[in-house]
Specification:
Blueprint: E1 2-7, H1 17-24, H2 30-38, E2 42-44, E3 47-48, E4 60-65, E5 82-85, E6 89-94, H3 111-118, E7 142-148, H4 151-162, E8 167-175, E9 182-186, E10 190-191, E11 199-200, E12 210-219, E13 222-229, H5 236-243, H6 256-259, H7 266-274, E14 280-288, E15 295-299, H8 307-312
Parallel strand pairs: 7-14
Antiparallel strand pairs: 1-4, 2-3, 2-4, 5-6, 6-7, 8-13, 8-14, 9-12, 10-11, 12-13, 14-15
Length: 318
């Protein structure tokens, strides 16, 4: 049994207990967090509470969690693009097509398998088959991820993500043109009612989500955006852009494949059709170093598969 204790910060005040617990412990889904609360494994100021209980700043959450049976994680010598590393953490530039952690259908060949080969001691903090993982990127999304190499570093990073002090900026190529050069999308999203692998705003269990965007370049009905996440919901940028009327190029799930035929410019249309994944890249990441407190900032170069499209749009890149 492992015990976790967290203070309720201003950023968590007003949140549901199950929601806050899932944020504080990213290895937990919200449904598992809710079940742990119902089972009496979680207390607030020493008292049992309900999953929907609203938190107040200054309260203390304590969770006693028994490790789940885990699959055997096999270290694998896979290519890793390491942007930064010290004894506490490492930052990697994940390639599009790589899954972050093992799950049904992806038992190996994941970022976690590669990390275990590069940092064998990560196995010591294995929780739900996600050692050191504090945030995720979709399989088709490239870009920056930070990984905690030690338990204290991982917990520090988890708290930063829960407190929303981490800065995450993405490059996204969308088919369409936003009406304003800069904007804010406030749209609650959640699991699609019938298509469980999709996310939508049209669901009874939507959770608040906010994305800021800035148009960096636009040509022929295709736009390049910098998107800043103020929340970190699954598929957030993809859904927010799609439901705003400008789906990501290459995003077959959320309409990018259907509208590509409307691009008038032949070269842009061909470049968008050539994409094998959503045109989304986690470009910039900032957080506080878990041990020193120094603010660290990293920027990942534009990946090769997106460069032809950005070249056509006249956007300078590395």
């Amino acid at each position: 049994m492992e015990t976790h204790r967290f203070a309720v910060t201003a950023a968590l005040a007003g949140r549901r207990l199950d929601n806050a617990l899932a944020l504080l412990l990213p290895e937990l889904s919200r449904s598992r967090a809710a079940q742990l609360i119902k089972d009496g494994c979680v207390t607030v100021d020493g008292h049992a509470a309900k999953p929907a209980a609203a938190l107040r700043e200054g309260q203390w959450i304590e969770a006693a969690i028994a490790p789940r049976p885990t699959m055997d994680l096999v270290p694998q010598e896979l290519a890793l693009d390491i942007v930064y590393e010290d004894e506490h953490l490492l930052v990697v530039n994940k390639a599009a097509g790589m899954v972050v952690h093992p799950a049904a259908g992806n038992p190996d060949g994941t970022l976690v398998n590669a990390l275990l080969f590069h940092v064998p001691e990560l196995a010591d903090q294995k929780v739900d088959d996600r050692p050191g993982i504090v945030h995720r990127l979709d399989k088709g999304t490239s870009g920056l991820l930070v990984i905690g190499k030690t338990g204290p570093a991982t917990h520090s990073l988890q708290r930063q993500f829960a407190g929303r002090t981490v800065t995450k900026k993405y490059l996204a190529v969308v088919i369409g043109e936003p009406k304003t050069k800069e904007g804010r999308i406030d749209l609650a999203i959640g699991r699609h009612v019938t298509e469980r692998k999709k996310i939508s705003s049209r669901t009874a269990k939507a959770r608040p989500a906010t994305t800021l965007y800035r148009v960096e370049a636009s040509r022929g009905g295709v736009s390049l955006l910098t998107c800043t996440l103020l929340t970190g919901r699954t598929h957030q940028i993809r859904v927010h852009c799609s439901e705003s009327g400008w789906p990501l190029a290459g995003d077959e799930t959320y309409g990018g494949g259907r509208v590509v035929k409307h691009i008038a410019d032949e070269d842009l249309r061909a470049a968008c059709r050539a994409l094998q994944r959503p045109a989304l890249h986690a470009r910039h990441l900032e957080f506080d170093h878990p041990a020193t407190g120094a603010r660290l900032a990293f920027t990942a170069p534009v990946p090769m598969d997106l460069q032809p499209l950005l070249n056509l749009m006249g956007y300078p890149h590395d």
